[in-house]
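can u do me a favor
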């Protein structure tokens, strides 16, 4: 076959795969597979068709077949960038088959080939989480957002794990960051619920339990902060606050920033102090805390929040541009 003929078949196979992907998105998995099969008849070893067919087979719970296509793709296309989603599918299939050790092994192999592909770390984190290894899960979610700061799922996962481990301050920062990325759709409602739970959750101190939202002011007015644990620092404070949720968030962010700028003793030991704190401090320095607080409350859809956002459109645009071009590469991790 001439090079022109090969190019024509490749182009036709590509269009079939594009059609198959659209069918998959619509839930037509079997019809999508038919498109991929036609593409593979034109181009016997077309990697995108192999990868997408494996994914659709996984969606149909045809795990053995999905694994076979993943293995074929990896065997025949070693080192090619198109294998990235194949490792994701392969690991996900094994996870669904309740074979976490094998899933982790596949993610490890994928990371060896593609060490900067953030989704491999995210999926590995999910598998660790399912097996109860929260320490490794957190490490992988942290690696995910270092590689891809806009990955909303990893921020939400970190917030959830920190919340469950009674680490309320980092959980608060992580869920706020999540809601700044994803503040529409059903999942954002879960984010708002988590935020409220964190703010209402009690933190244990020497005098018992106090709600998180009531632990923010007086500790920063004294010079007696000796304990580097943020939970311990916050447990020394108390105040009553009946402001709206956005106003409470504004207060909390500013007070957390006050801690972050003063508390440097063991800063390199805390991921959230090195990753999240500089972001929120820069936000305050640029006068974006208020629009940020209203932005992350959009999922609530109350009239007060909507009215404020609509009457401060220029500030919201400025926040969007600042956030979009914030230099996460300056994070020293």
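np, heres the sequence
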């Amino acid at each position: 076959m001439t090079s022109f003929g090969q190019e024509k078949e490749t182009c036709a196979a590509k269009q079939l795969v594009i059609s198959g992907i659209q069918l998959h998105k619509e839930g037509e998995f079997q019809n999508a597979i038919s498109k991929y099969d036609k593409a593979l008849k034109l181009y016997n070893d077309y990697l995108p068709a192999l990868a997408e067919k494996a994914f659709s087979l996984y969606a149909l719970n045809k795990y053995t077949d999905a694994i076979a296509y993943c293995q074929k793709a990896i065997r025949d296309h070693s080192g090619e960038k198109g294998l990235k989603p194949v490792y994701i599918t392969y690991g996900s299939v094994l996870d669904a088959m309740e074979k976490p050790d094998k899933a982790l092994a596949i993610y490890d192999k994928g990371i060896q080939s593609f060490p900067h592909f953030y989704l491999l770390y995210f999926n590995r984190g999910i598998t660790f989480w399912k097996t109860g290894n929260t320490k490794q899960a957190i490490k992988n979610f942290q690696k995910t957002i270092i590689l891809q700061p806009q990955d909303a799922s990893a921020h939400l996962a970190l917030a959830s794990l920190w919340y469950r481990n009674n680490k309320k301050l980092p959980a608060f920062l992580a869920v706020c960051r999540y809601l700044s990325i994803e503040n529409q759709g059903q999942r954002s409602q879960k984010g708002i619920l988590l935020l409220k739970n964190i703010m209402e959750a009690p933190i244990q101190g020497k005098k018992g339990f106090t709600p998180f939202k009531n632990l923010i002011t007086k500790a920063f007015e004294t010079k007696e902060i000796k304990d580097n644990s943020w939970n311990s620092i916050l447990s020394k404070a108390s105040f009553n606050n009946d402001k709206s949720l956005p106003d409470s968030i504004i207060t909390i962010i500013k007070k957390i920033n006050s801690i972050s700028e003063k508390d440097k003793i063991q800063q390199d030991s805390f991921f959230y102090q090195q990753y999240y704190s500089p972001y929120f401090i820069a936000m305050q320095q640029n006068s974006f805390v208020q629009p940020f607080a209203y932005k992350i409350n959009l999922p609530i859809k109350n009239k007060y929040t909507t009215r404020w956002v609509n009457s401060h459109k220029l500030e919201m645009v400025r926040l969007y541009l600042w956030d979009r071009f914030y230099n996460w590469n300056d994070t020293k991790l």
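The chain is about 70% helix and 0% strand. hope that helps!!
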